[in-house]
Amino acid sequence: MQTYPVSLVLEGSVAVVVGGGSVATRKVEGLLPTGATVVVVSPDVSAQLAAHIQAGRCAWRAQAYEASNLDDADIVFVATDDEAVNAQVHADACAAHLPVNVADRPELCTFFLPSVLRRGKLTIAVSTEGASPLTARRLRSELEERIPAGFEAYLDLLAAWRPRAIAALPDEPARLRFWQQATDGRVQRLVQAADEEAAERLLEELLEDERAACATLL
User: Fold this and answer.
1) Model pTM score
2) What is the pLDDT of residues 9-24, one digit of tens each?
3) Domain map of the chain by residue range?
4) Closest CA relative to residue 78, chosen from 8, 11, 16, 9
5) CB 23: neighbour CB atoms within 10 A?
């Protein structure tokens, strides 16, 4: 069975994390930046989780798991050492048609959590579909070493130019030709060299050339 990779928008959703130990802590800390409402269900929690709870970054239901804990959930994460609890949460989530991930139990997952590298607008996710999370982390580290300095600024620059290119080049093939040149490495090398003014000038030249070419065809 092949999975379908996606990046979920969780802002405004309710993410329930069953468990309070170190693995559950990692799940919570990965969820917090997404803007989801995070609810931890566990009789006890780690010191790190307690700090997040005290700061109001997530909610805590200090109790053993029960099915009603999923009533308001949109997505479910399970990280306990109790196999019976893990299986029960999985069964309850599936019955409610909720996506569920059970740590270290790929057969009880309806989605897998990749090892993620973030650099500004760049996100690289590496997944082994639960076969070897450590291998995924090692591959992510190798990829991280290959990404040059200044890549975040480069993507920010391209993002800022998107509306301008759309407005100047309403013809889709023309926009594609512009972006093929804008991303051929020249602009990136200028940004890496901390010469954003030159990068801007080059983008301007590329845009004007393509706009002139379009005018010639009319």
Assistant:
1) 0.73
2) 999 999 999 999 999 9
3) 14-112, 114-147, 151-217
4) 16
5) 18
